[in-house]
Write a structure and sequence with these properties.
There is one protein chain. This protein is α/β, with parallel strands linked by helices. Helix content is 38%, strand content 20%. It is built from 3 helices and 7 strands. The strands form 2 sheets. The chain has a 5-stranded mixed sheet with strand order 3-2-1-4-7, covered by helices on one side. A two-stranded antiparallel ribbon has the order 5-6. Strand 2, helix 2 and strand 3 form a beta-alpha-beta unit. Helix 1 packs parallel to helix 3. It is globular and about 30 Å long. The chain starts with a strand and ends in a 7-residue tail after the last helix.
């Protein structure tokens, strides 16, 4: 689950990297779910489509489960429960996605 904020420059910066990881994530039986706030549904859809992100996107006015972290932030969910610590910031979110896809940096 990735928490995304429309207009967040760090979120926009990692969009292409996340799009590039989609096939590897699918191969690892992992779905990419974006929870977006800010902007309209149409603006968020356009931004995600422009980056080539095709995972599920939920558009939320506020993040009741977000716990006040900045964006982008992410954590893994398995069996309906969180299975990782929350990752905050572009490089850490990308690293978590790579880890979930079974990709090791430098390999």
């Amino acid at each position: 689950v990735i928490f995304w904020s429309y207009g967040c420059s760090f979120c926009v910066q990692i969009a292409d990297e996340l799009a590039a990881l989609q096939d590897a994530l699918r191969s690892a039986d992992t779905d990419l779910i974006l929870v977006a706030r800010g902007g309209t549904k149409e603006e968020n859809d356009q931004l995600l489509e422009g980056a080539g992100l095709t995972g599920a996107a939920v558009f939320e006015g506020k993040f009741p489960i977000f716990d006040g972290q900045g964006t982008p932030s992410a954590y893994l969910v398995e069996g309906g429960k969180t299975s990782s610590e929350i990752s905050v910031g572009g490089p850490w979110v990308e690293g978590l996605a790579k880890s979930a896809a079974g990709i090791v940096d430098g390999a």
